[in-house]
């Protein structure tokens, strides 16, 4: 019998009315932790939410959570995606790189979970560099532990990330040999079954790096060894999950070479991968690249189907 990593939370989820209520119009927000937040520094809750130019921005996250989007039962596929919004590890662009995408997955019968993760901040974490990774691993465990209640396939739980959220997702997909959660069960499965990476921050190579993301995550004085530890193209192995990547050639914030070097590493390790690079689109286009009639989300769904995900 499978041992639950989060028995209390799983029990709460099972008893909640929404546990078997598919196609809910309003997503349910669940706390990630029920027995204290790991790596936390006590202090006031200074979380801020603001909407600018139609984009919901969340900052100063102290209490991480996950928003649950369950599809209607007649179209549910059993597949789940954990979504990590971007924002340079300084904010979370939670609407166009989070909730809007979750709604599209839900329409396709795919359960979606938007992660409100802690941003690297010495005010809230004793080790800011691993706080986002801890939250993503916790969320994966929570989804798998709740698979029965949510009618999910344990072998079809993937992770998605945009920009710096793409770095977080890629970190989860390349650092799963170790759980960064204290007192985690040895058998805990923190490996996503697939990755969907949208204009992701990948490499710490100064020629192509988004330096701001690495400065936020590791500090401006980070050693070369520390930078290489989180330069995810260096961490790809044959066990890295199958990956779908999207970028734009004219991305001036996070150069397309980030996706290219990751894709090349996947090929070298015989990991199934697909890469789409649009001529234009810039950075941060979310679901809709206005420069093309092509829809990357449709290509993503086709790739998932072709890989039986």
Which short descriptors sum up this protein?
alpha/beta, globular, three-stranded antiparallel β-sheet, 11 strands, single chain, eight-stranded mixed β-sheet
Describe this structure in words.
Helix content is 29%, strand content 17%. It has helices spanning 7-15, 95-107, 131-145, 147-150, 164-174, 211-218, 224-229, 257-268, 296-306, and strands at 28-31, 48-52, 55-59, 65-69, 80-84, 92-93, 111-116, 157-162, 195-198, 243-248, 273-278. The strands form 2 sheets. An 8-stranded mixed sheet has the order 1-4-7-5-8-9-10-11, sandwiched between helices. A 3-stranded antiparallel sheet has the order 2-3-6. α3 (131-145) packs across α5. It is globular and about 45 Å long.
**Share of helix among residues?**
25-40%
Which stretches are poorly predicted, pLDDT < 50 over at least 5 residues?
10-21
- Total of helices: 9
Distance N to C terminus? 25 Å
- Overall residue-averaged pLDDT value: 92
* SS-based class: alpha/beta
Strand content bin: 15-25%
Number of strands: 11
Provide the spatial order of strands within the biggest beta sheet. Answer: 1-4-7-5-8-9-10-11
Helix/strand order, N-terminal first: HEEEEEEHEHHEHEHHEHEH
What does the radius of gyration come to? 18 Å
The geometry reads as globular
Report on the biggest sheet: 8 strands, mixed
